[in-house]
Amino acid sequence: LARGSSTFPSSIRALSYCATNNIGLNRAQNSAFSRTHSTASTGVITKDEVVNALQAWCDGIVHIGKVFQSNGDYTTASKKFLDEKYAFDLMDGSGNNHNVVLFKPTKAAEMPIRHDMDSALSYFAATGLVNEDKGFAITPFTKIRHKISGMFITSGTATSMGHYWFTDLSGGETKVEFTFQYIRGPSGDLKIVLHHSSLPFNP
Question: Which end of the chain has fewer surrounding CB within 10 Å, N or C?
Answer without folding.
Answer: C
